[in-house]
Structure of Glyoxalase-like domain-containing protein:
Amino acid sequence: MITRLDHVMIAVRDLDTAIDHYQRLGFRVISGGNHTTLGTQNAFIHFGFTYIELISTFDPARTIQALPHVDVMLNALDQRDGAMIGYALASTDLAKDMEHLSRTGLVVNQPYSVQRMRADGTALNVQVFMPGGQPWRRAWPFLYEWEWSNDEINRAQTHDNGITGIVKVSVGVKDFEQVITIYQQNLGLKLQKQDIVAHLDAKRATFCINDAFIDLLTPRGTGQLKKDLREIGEGVFEIFLTSNNLNHTRIYLEKQGIHFAQDSSDPHALVIEPQEMFETRWIITPETRHI
């Protein structure tokens, strides 16, 4: 059973540069270290249950040999400094979720075990399942089943910028109706509404999962969404995060020389300019704002 949003993965060309940058933005960033057999390295920004994983490769040849389909990530980084390459949902019964997904033809491999570091340095074991065989730039999430209780997983971190968590992920898709069916019938998520996002010139389907949301977006005309679908394919388009004091967050970012603008569709939100976030889209909203 899928229970909540787990994390978002952001690939960057240079991990040390990214860590320094996000620390300057007021985030507490925890190094995950090098994965010598994979040629990759990562770091984490924790918010409690949810987190952001920053990932890079220090040995592309080894990474290509070790990770199937990683060329999708590397090709995205050939075109830009960073890219949101995937996101994960947490499950309490991975076997049952795989059974539901088997009807889609997306079950092509078995789960595997990895370790994730908690902010206090504790190693947590997790089972990972990748629908379709790989997580990079897909219209659907990959799934995590933690071998620890929620109390053991949740270690909320405070960040100097006042940002407290991820509340929504927007995903660019091509076959709108087919992907809605996968989310609704095979992932078991509740479809809340379908509407139009005027400033993106896109159709939207919104799903609710616990206290977070997932938007599926497909373009109706030209614009950044259509450009991303053409250049790097389907996948995460933007993330929405919450702040416990939006005015404090705005002032903090201004002092760091960060450029941002109000969201044209929501005067209560801040949009950080993508060039400030390794060409990824981050939107900050108040904790009390229902999106």
Notes: The first strand starts at residue 2 and ends at 12. The helical segments are 15-24, 60-66, 71-79, 94-101, 150-153, 176-186, 224-232, 246-255. Residues 192 and 261 are 28 Å apart (CA to CA). The chain has a mean pLDDT of 88.
